Amino acid sequence: MSFKLCIIVNRCTLKPNLYLSVLVLVCVLVATSSYAQNLDVAKKCEISKHDDNNLTLNCSRRNFYSIPQWPLEISQVTKDGHMLITFFNNSITKVTELPATPGGRIAISFKHNRITDIVMDAFQNLERLVYLDLSKNKISGDVLRTEIFRGSYNFNKYNNIALETLNLGHNEIHSLDRYLFQYTPNLTRLYLNNNPIELLDHVTVLAISSATNLEVLDLSHTDIDNIPLVAFKGLKHLQQIDLSGNKFTTVPETLSLVGSSLKFLSFNNNPIVELNDDSFIGLTNLIELEVAENDYLDEVKRSTFSPLKNLRVLHLCHNRNLRYISHNAFKGLKDKWTLKEVYLDDNDLSEISPDLMPWTKLDTLGMTGNNWLCNCDLADIVTLQGAGEKFKTGESPYCAAPLKLSGEYITNITLSFCPTFDKTFSSKRKFSITNLKPKQVLWSIFGVAIVACIGMAIGWLVKSVKNIYKKNRNQPVPYINLNSNSFA
């Protein structure tokens, strides 16, 4: 390379014919160098052929600064085959236009590079690209333009690409182009986690809502505290959403718009203080709920989980200040119980109501890491209602109080002082006068007499007042005769 540079620098001193010959030689040297570099790239990357329909090109951790040409072995993949190409953990700064690749389903990963730019039509030759990972780079929202994800140009229009999964997590995105997903109608999984979005502005909301086939949406750790109602408008297939690590003080009511389809909700690590009967309204088809690592959560109120009529798994754990769960938190669900797994680990609970839930209907229960007061209620839950049989092996919780039971497994304690209630009931007897004792009869008669006397006294007093009033009213008025002599 230094030899070529010397020739170029000193070209002014050469004769014309000699200069032409040197120029040709330089071109040959450059082409040869590029070819050798591509051969070297092919040798550096590992090619794994699983069968005739599955091939992996592993170019990870090879210290690439740009995207090389594909090796010839890739052309052996059939049109229905699966192709995985990974450039994980390199130093690539720009995604250039990628060469055509055979195969019916293509997956490419550029995770953990230094990408700051993506050229227009970068993926137009890969219309069967179904998976693209651009996470952990330095991509901004300005880089993500509509033209990046469009296919080839035919018959006066651009084709779509088959993209199903797009991972944009851990970048520098503040906003999205409203038409970003115009050419990706099959997009079902979108990851925007760990981007400094802060506010879902109008164009970002339009971009998300335009991906009408979304099933999975990750907005975790984006510093948002609100979701506009129109953000989920039209997302009738959304099944999973992650809102962890944000600034929500309440569960956003926007979720009710996708309540008929939503099945998995992660709401961890938010500054929420309480959960109440408004928190999960409309989420009737939710199967799994995570409410964990919320350091400010201290109370779960009445009817909090009542809307969740199909819930199977509840993670209410690692909330270090959670001290109280209402015994009616599952009001209305106990007769049609669907929960199979409940995790209450690592909260600040000390007591819990025996009638919180039908403990016998659970398959798995977690209660470790709390400050349990081993009292009669806890003994009822663990022994009489069989909750102790639901703990996983080696995950039996300890008693924190009283002092004499501190450190004991709650499954080992027997509280002999707890009363045993007779759960049989005698039939109700009909009331009869003969059931009264003589003293009760006398006191009853005496009471009636006193009431009668008081009534008579009040009646006599009223009558007397009325008579006096009538007497004063009927007294004649004196008249004076003006013609009498008494004035003479």
Automatic annotation (TrEMBL):
SMART domains on file: LRR_TYP
TM stretches of this protein: 441-462
Pfam families noted in UniProt: LRR_4, LRR_8
Signal peptide: none
Record bears the keyword Ribonucleoprotein: no
Coiled-coil residues: none
Keywords assigned by UniProt, alphabetized: Leucine-rich repeat, Membrane, Repeat, Transmembrane, Transmembrane helix
InterPro entries with a match to the protein in the record: Leu-rich_rpt, Leu-rich_rpt_4, Leu-rich_rpt_typical-subtyp, LRR_dom_sf
Database matches in SUPFAM superfamilies: L domain-like (SSF52058)
Alphabetized Gene3D superfamilies for the sequence: Ribonuclease Inhibitor
Name assigned to this protein: LRRCT domain-containing protein
Source species: Chilo suppressalis
